[in-house]
Amino acid sequence: METDPGAASGRRVAGWRWEAPQVTAVSEQERRAGEELARHLLDIGVLTPEWAEALRAVPRSLFLPDPFWAYDMATSLSVPVFRNDDLARWARAAYENVPLVTQWDDGQHTGDKPGSKATSSASMPSVVVSMLRDLELSDGMRVLEVGTGTGWNAGLLAHRLGNGNVVSVEIDPAVAASASAALTRAGLGPRLVEGDGREGWPVGAPYDRVIVTAGVRNFPAKWLEQTRPGGIILAPWGTHYSHQDGLVRLAVGEDGRAVGPFVRLVEFMKLRDQRLDWNLFGGHVKEFPGNAEGSRTSLTLADIGSRYDAADFVVGLCVPDCAHVVNVGDSGEEGDAKAWFFDFLSQSWAAVVFSPGAPDATVYQSGPRRLWDEVEQALTWWISQGRPAVDRFGLTVDRDGTTRPWLDTPVGVLPSFGDDRPRNARAGL
Ligand SMILES: C[S@@+](CC[C@H](N)C(=O)[O-])C[C@H]1O[C@@H](n2cnc3c(N)ncnc32)[C@H](O)[C@@H]1O
After folding, report:
1. Could you tell me if residue 297 is left (phi over 0), alpha (psi between -120 and 50 degrees) or otherwise beta?
2. Same domain for 71 and 208
3. How far is residue 13 from each of residues 53, 78, 100, 105, 340, measured CA to CA in Å?
4. Among 92, 161, 152, 145, which residue's Cα sits nearest to residue 122?
5. pLDDT tens-digit series, residues 26-40
6. Distances from the Cα of 271 to the Cαs of 146, 196, 234, 307, in angstroms?
7. How would residue 24 be classed by pLDDT, with cut points 50, 70 and 90?
8. Domain shared by 184 and 312, yes or no
9. Known catalytic residue: 123?
10. Are 37 and 125 in contact (CB under 8 A)?
11. Are residues 174 and 294 in the same domain?
12. Is ligand 1 within 6 A of the CB of residue 172?
């Protein structure tokens, strides 16, 4: 490794190869911050006594690079936090109940400033511990984790089950290397595999549990093959309609299919090859509104739903191959927004323009699909069902990875609005 003059202070200097100085011991400030975090997670009811013990034994800060990027609620910016600059601040940030970005742009980004896309992180502690609780582990179980990231979750699992029972797969070589170093510092040694987690790791199969810590859009059949009948797969799954994932807890049956309910909404960075590429829609809107067909809708911005709203997730289950985004208007007034909808397979698009105080919104639609009509039908159906929460929905995954979402029972298939291609032939479902 080459070193540079900034390395001693933990700073990256442009033009130099740099490696994070390694934190080998946990300071008293970090230990106290860790205790506070554990108390908070117990208070909000996500941490069980079993996992509280693991949290104390496997300190999160040992797994964080220097710097990491914390999200500043006040400015909506990701800010780098350096251990050597201010240990007290580092300790607070390391043990806040927030996700911390640990890599940008698949490692292509250098420097202290945030890059354009967060590609690895230390997940939010409350999400980590509730997913561990959802696994319902017992002694001797074998677990496959997809998405090692910092290695903290793999460390918690290895502490609970023993190194020999935990395998974790990470696609990014640099991320995998720092997870491995962190686990060594923590005195733990689960099996780390550098590779594409969509392949699982057949050498260690069958697994009692598979836990996926990156968002899934197309379900890999390999995970089903490598889980023993009666085993559980816990994965954040969703469609490209939104960034939202539904955390699904699937039980694998003797027939090799997996069935189970969504537990709650979460939001994970997606598996590397399953990210939505917004450039796909770059040529859709040649002119706005151009000769798009105009109409009106009485549905509101609130009806479309936003982050962590079931509507945002459920529409994606019912309207195939559609992505959407809501842009807030420049006026800054509440209710000033434009919602865009784009088709994956044709150049169809729709836009709904919401204006503050207006009784209804203006709709523009262009191309062979009438995307807003499909979304409106899906929302109207969901509202007519009494706006069911996400935990009334579930998913069946066939042996080949085909996914079939349902409401209340696996025999009830959801309505599908839009074109009549079979679900298998569509992207994102
Ligand atoms: C949210 S982070 C995981 C957090 C982690 N479990 C922890 O405890 O810190 C998601 C990770 O998944 C990795 N990843 C993305 N696609 C992957 C793939 N196809 N196979 C394996 N890992 C993948 C990313 O590089 C990233 O490190």
Report:
1. beta
2. yes
3. 39, 19, 22, 18, 40
4. 152
5. 999 999 999 999 999
6. 9, 9, 15, 20
7. low
8. no
9. yes
10. yes
11. no
12. yes
| Ligand 1 center from residue 212 Cα (angstroms) | 8
Residue 244 lies in a domain: no
Tallying the residues shown for the chain, one arrives at 429
Residue 278 reports pLDDT greater than 70: yes
Q: Is the CB of 117 under 6 A from ligand 1?
A: no
> Which of residues 213, 244, 259 is at a domain's end?
213
Cβ of 120 less than 6 Å from ligand 1: yes
Burial of 168 (0-12, 13-18, 19+ CB in 10 A): buried
Q: Is the peptide bond before 289 cis (omega within 30 degrees of 0)?
A: yes
48 sits in the region (left: phi over 0; alpha: psi -120 to 50; else beta) called: beta
pLDDT, one tens digit per residue, over 93-122 is: 999 999 999 999 999 998 889 999 999 999
Residue 354 lies in a domain: yes
The SS3 call for residue 182 is: helix
CATH code: domain of residue 50: 3.40.50.150
301-355 pLDDT per residue, tens:
999 998 889 999 999 999 999 999 999 988 888 889 999 999 999 999 999 999 9
Question: Which of these three, 384, 402, 422, is where a domain ends?
Answer: 384
- Taking CA atoms, 207 is separated from 53, 59, 165, 216, 387, in Å, by 24, 26, 9, 19, 36
d(CA 408, CA 198): 29
Cα dihedral sign for 381, 384, 389, 391? negative
* Position 339 in a domain: yes
Q: Are residues 365 and 284 in the same domain?
A: yes
- The helix, strand and coil proportions of the chain, stated in percent and rounded to the nearest 5, come to 30, 25, 45
Specify whether 21 is located in the same domain as 168.
yes
**Does residue 147 have its Cβ closer than 6 Å to ligand 1?**
yes
Q: Which atom of ligand 1 is nearest to the CA of 175?
A: 27
Three-state secondary-structure class, residue 225:
helix
In this structure, is residue 269 part of a structural domain?
no
The structural domain count of the chain equals 2
Q: Are 66 and 205 in a shared domain?
A: yes
Residue 18 pLDDT greater than 80, yes or no: no
> Higher-confidence residue: 150 or 50?
150
CATH number of domain containing 333: 3.30.310
Domain of 81?
7-213
Task: Check whether residue 54 and residue 197 sit in a common domain.
Answer: yes
pLDDT of residue 419: 64
pLDDT tier at 423, thresholds 50, 70, 90: very low
